[in-house]
């Protein structure tokens, strides 16, 4: 059930990102004569304060918001898996040092750390990706270390070591696949959090530069018009909710599959 519903919501986002832009006008095209127009057949979700089509901008923002979230998720997955696996397999001083670094990183809330990094580096898409990646890898590394440590005590892993297979060869052959599956489930679950964090930072003006459409930025631009044009907020807020729900449901499906 989770897999079907999550796949359906993900497909809906795919249609929004791929099909809708083919049917809507340029998301950056302004028409001040039609600004703040209510939803109609000409503009299904109305227009914003510059007369831009809200549906077109919401669809365009899908590429930026979800694309950035998936990029951050991929980076943190690779880094977290590699660091966690290294700590679990190497053990000893290496494990101790890595664990302390993870603890120090996790001592600061992820969004606060990302906000501080962007504050130092300056706003911009590349800096936002870097900040979110630096702030997010430690959580996954801790999970990866825990998963990998459990796998090292499995009978088939111990048997491979007794058969003369080297520690690192055994780690890549037996420990990493199972660990990657577990970390992937956690990463998928965190995509929703990443989307919300990116939207929050963009809301504060630390994301992409206008007129590029991004969901958090759209909400920020619309906050002064909520009483007159509520659709300006409802559209990006709705797709944010759908994205978080899809990520959560798909994460549950991946986790259930990993338990089989």
TrEMBL record:
The chain crosses the membrane at residues 63-89, 101-122, 183-209, 229-251. Keywords: Cell membrane, Membrane, Transmembrane, Transmembrane helix, Transport. PROSITE patterns: ABC_TM1. It comes from the Bacteria. Its main location: membrane. It is found in: Cell membrane. InterPro entries: BP-dependent_transpt_permease, MetI-like, MetI-like_sf. It holds the Pfam family BPD_transp_1. Residues 66-251 form the ABC transmembrane type-1 domain. SUPFAM superfamilies: MetI-like. It is a multi-pass membrane protein. Gene3D superfamilies: MetI-like. PANTHER family: D,D-DIPEPTIDE TRANSPORT SYSTEM PERMEASE PROTEIN DDPC-RELATED (PTHR43386:SF1), OLIGOPEPTIDE TRANSPORT SYSTEM PERMEASE PROTEIN APPC (PTHR43386). Belongs to the binding-protein-dependent transport system permease family. This is ABC transporter permease. It comes from Allokutzneria oryzae. The lineage of its organism: Bacteria, Bacillati, Actinomycetota, Actinomycetes, Pseudonocardiales.
């Amino acid at each position: 059930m989770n897999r079907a519903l999550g796949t359906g919501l993900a497909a809906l986002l795919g249609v929004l990102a791929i099909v809708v832009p083919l049917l809507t006008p340029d998301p950056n095209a302004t028409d001040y004569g039609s600004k703040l127009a209510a939803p109609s057949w000409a503009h299904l979700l109305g227009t914003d304060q510059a007369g831009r089509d809200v549906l077109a901008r919401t669809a365009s923002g899908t590429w930026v918001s979800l694309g950035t979230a998936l990029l951050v998720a991929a980076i943190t997955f690779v880094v977290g898996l590699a660091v966690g696996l290294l700590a679990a397999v190497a053990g000893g001083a290496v494990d101790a040092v890595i664990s302390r670094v993870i603890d120090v990183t996790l001592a600061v809330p992820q969004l606060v750390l990302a906000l501080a990094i962007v504050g130092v580096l300056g706003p911009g898409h590349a800096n936002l990706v870097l900040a979110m990646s630096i702030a997010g890898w430690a959580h996954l590394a801790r999970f990866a270390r825990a998963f990998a440590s459990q796998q090292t005590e499995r009978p088939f892993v111990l048997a491979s070591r007794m058969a003369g297979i080297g520690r690192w060869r055994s780690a890549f052959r037996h420990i990493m696949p199972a660990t990657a599956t577990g970390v992937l489930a956690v990463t998928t679950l965190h995509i929703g959090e990443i989307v919300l964090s990116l939207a929050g930072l963009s809301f504060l003006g630390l994301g992409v530069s206008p007129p590029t459409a991004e969901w958090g930025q759209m909400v920020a631009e619309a906050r002064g018009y909520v009483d007159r044009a509520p659709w300006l907020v409802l559209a990006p807020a709705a797709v944010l909710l759908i994205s978080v729900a899809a990520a959560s449901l798909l994460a549950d499906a991946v986790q259930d599959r990993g338990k089989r």
